[in-house]
Amino acid sequence: MRKIGRMEKIKILVVEDEAPIQELLQFNLERKKYHVKVVDSGEEAIPLAAEFKPDLILLDIMLPGADGLEVCKRLKADPKTAPIPIIMLTALCEEADIVTGLELGADDYVTKPFSPRVLLARVKAALRRISATKPVTSNDDLIQAHNISIDVVRHKVDVDGKDVVLTFTEFKVLQLLSQQPGRVFTRYQIVDAVHGEDYPVTDRSVDVQIVGLRKKLGDAGKFIETVRGIGYRFKEEE
């Protein structure tokens, strides 16, 4: 992913086939000084992503021809476009597709109908994650998020200076979520990241781990947010 200079416009590719939504997205993004290109099919989006090299892609799931999931899969399979973050645009009834999209490599999603304010906040958060996949700390081995300190090397956690004893799995889940605040992780992504692929546990076992983790973190447990039907994310610093 290229580094964005101060005077260089951030490039966003919008893949959406409904004209009113295209216009809404383009207007609001350009108002924030983003350089925007719009296409209405996946077949157009795939070669353009390689040529245009956007910093972010807004990708509708319901597209004519190759749908958004197929487009996401193909973009993430190509080394030239794989690093580009993708935010999916979905209907409220597409919960299963949201999970699939996230597991294919999409970074986030916004459900229709959406407010421009919410969309722009998600765009800003995704772009922020490009430049720093970890919270700002003085040491790469120390994650400082809200009032939680996570010592990656020593496997130690403290909240407001008080030690919190976690199991190995609870620690790895907290580390994963806190390293990319704002990003939604599905339950299966959490299992794969913590235990490796094909680990013989159900996705619901993650819910049990989250309950235990929140309890041990006390008031700081609120920073682990449930995304209904999808998974979990760590709350971003305001």
Description:
Helix content is 40%, strand content 21%. The protein is α/β, with parallel strands linked by helices and 238 residues long. The chain has 2 domains: 11-131, Rossmann fold (3-Layer(aba) Sandwich), CATH 3.40.50; 142-234, Arc Repressor Mutant, subunit A (Orthogonal Bundle). The strands form 3 sheets. The chain has a 5-stranded parallel sheet with strand order 2-1-3-4-5, sandwiched between helices. Strands 6-7-8-9 form a 4-stranded antiparallel sheet, covered by helices on one side. Helix 3 (68-77) links the parallel strand 3 (56-60) and strand 4 (86-91). The protein is elongated, with a radius of gyration of 19 Å.
Q: What's the order of the H and E elements?
A: EHEHEHEHEHEEEEHEHHEE
Number of helices: 8
CATH topological fold name of the largest domain: Rossmann fold
| Fraction in beta strands | 15-25%
Mean pLDDT: 85
Helix content: 25-40%
The CATH class name of the largest domain reads Alpha Beta
